[in-house]
């Protein structure tokens, strides 16, 4: 196991974050900022993520994972997540640097109408369920937004939960989640 920075080790001891769902490469995602969908937490299935099939159906990007990671040249960091199914979830351990209201920007893709997902902290939704529209094909990313997201300064685990599949048979492909703080607060 790689060296864990003392601050993260101290947080484990304090019990303020789940020990079995730890930040990708031991680095908290910073908010405001961009979280690559493929950089979900490290940890075993059921702790860091839940995926309905054991196999990674996509690219060999992370060592051992059941999550389906898609290699795609049009995506930020060259990868996103795909083959999303109802009931699946992904954790992202974050550090919110400034309390306030945020907009989340997400490039998504779907051939035919996609499904619904939501972002939560401790089971509380950050905004209404987000719908992935027909973007014109799996290879066509379109930026969608969710607005009015209130976040409090500090460390949190944001969970992305797949709620319902659409006409496409999937929820949709997601490239990243970019948290932009509103200028007015
Ligand atoms: Ca899978
Ligand atoms: Ca990405």
Can you summarize this structure?
By secondary structure, the protein is mainly β. The chain has one helix at residues 6-14; strands at residues 29-31, 33-36, 49-50, 69-71, 79-81, 89-96, 100-110, 116-121, 124-125, 130-131, 137-151, 154-164, 173-174, 176-181.
Helical content stands at under 10%
Bound molecules: calcium ion
Number of domains: 1
Average pLDDT, all residues: 92
Rg (CA only): 16 Å
Overall CATH class: Mainly Beta
Which second-level CATH architecture applies?
Answer: Sandwich
Give the percentage of residues in beta strands: 35-45%
CATH superfamily: Galactose-binding domain-like
Structural class: mainly beta
Task: Walk me through this protein's architecture.
- Strands 1, 3, 6, 8, 9, 10 and 12 form a seven-stranded mixed sheet that branches. Strands 2, 7, 11, 13 and 14 form a five-stranded antiparallel sheet that branches. The protein has a two-stranded antiparallel sheet with strand order 4-5.
- It is 5% helix and 42% strand.
- It is globular, with a radius of gyration of 16 Å.
- The mean pLDDT is 92.
- The chain has one helix at 6-14; strands at 29-31, 33-36, 49-50, 69-71, 79-81, 89-96, 100-110, 116-121, 124-125, 130-131, 137-151, 154-164, 173-174, 176-181.
- It is built from one helix and 14 strands; from the N terminus they run αββββββββββββββ.
- 38% of the residues are buried.
- It has a single domain, classed as Jelly Rolls (Sandwich).
- By secondary structure, it is mainly beta.
- The longest helix is centred in the first third of the chain and has 9 residues, at 6-14.
- One calcium ion is lined by residues 51, 53, 55-57, 66, 68.
């Amino acid at each position: 196991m790689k060296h864990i920075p003392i601050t993260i080790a101290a947080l484990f001891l304090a019990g303020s974050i789940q020990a079995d769902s730890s930040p990708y490469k031991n680095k908290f995602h910073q908010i405001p900022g961009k979280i690559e969908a493929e950089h979900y937490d490290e940890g075993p299935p059921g702790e860091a993520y839940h995926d309905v099939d054991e196999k990674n159906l996509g690219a060999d990007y992370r060592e051992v994972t059941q999550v389906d990671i898609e290699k795609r040249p049009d995506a930020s960091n060259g990868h996103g997540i795909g083959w999303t199914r109802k009931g699946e979830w992904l954790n992202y351990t974050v550090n919110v640097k400034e309390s306030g209201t945020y907009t989340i920007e997400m490039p998504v893709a779907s051939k035919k109408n996609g499904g619904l997902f939501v972002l939560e902290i401790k089971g509380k939704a950050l905004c209404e369920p987000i719908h992935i529209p027909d973007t014109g094909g799996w290879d066509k990313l379109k930026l969608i937004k969710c607005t009015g997201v209130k976040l409090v300064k500090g460390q949190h685990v944001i969970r992305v939960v797949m709620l319902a599949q659409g006409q496409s048979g999937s929820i949709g492909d997601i490239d990243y989640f970019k948290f932009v703080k509103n200028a007015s607060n």
